Amino acid sequence: EIYPFLGSYLLAEAIDEEGADLAVHGHAHAGTEHGMTSGGVQVRNVAQPVIGRAFHVYNLPARQAIRSADHV
Predict the structure, then answer these.
(1) What is the mean pLDDT of residues 8-18?
(2) What is the pLDDT of residue 1?
(3) DSSP string, 1-69
(4) Which of 6, 17, 55, 69 is the one with CA 20 to 30 A from 30?
(5) Residue 45 belongs to domain spanning
(6) Has residue 59 been placed in a domain?
(7) How far apart are CA 41 and CA 51, in angstroms?
């Protein structure tokens, strides 16, 4: 099955425009764990075949984890 927008610039643009701290996906069973959008947002592929375990915990720096009430 083909997923036409997997890794698409359209998804990356939406992530960059909203100012995400981290984008996480698990739909690509091949590939690499670490990536980044053109706007600098970190992307993690958490598909089990990629990370080699059932889950992984990612810690964000405190300055990134705090968001203003108007941005929630």
Answers:
(1) 87
(2) 57
(3) ---TTTT-HHHHHHHHHHT-SEEEE---SSS-SEEE-TTS-EEEE--HHHHSSS-------HHHH---G
(4) 17
(5) 9-71
(6) yes
(7) 19
In sequence order, the 6+-apart residues with CB closer than 8 A to the CB of 35 are 42, 43, 44, 45
Residue 7 tokens, joined: 């890794």
CA 20 – CA 55 distance, rounded (Å): 21
Question: Cα(30)–Cα(23) distance, rounded to whole angstroms?
Answer: 17
Neighbours of 43 (CB within 10 A): 19
Q: For residue 47, what are the contacts with CB-CB under 8 A and spacing of at least 6?
A: 25, 26, 27, 28, 29, 31
Number of domains into which the chain is organized: 1
65 lies in some domain? yes
What pLDDT is stored for residue 41 in this prediction?
93
Tell me if 3 is assigned to some domain: no
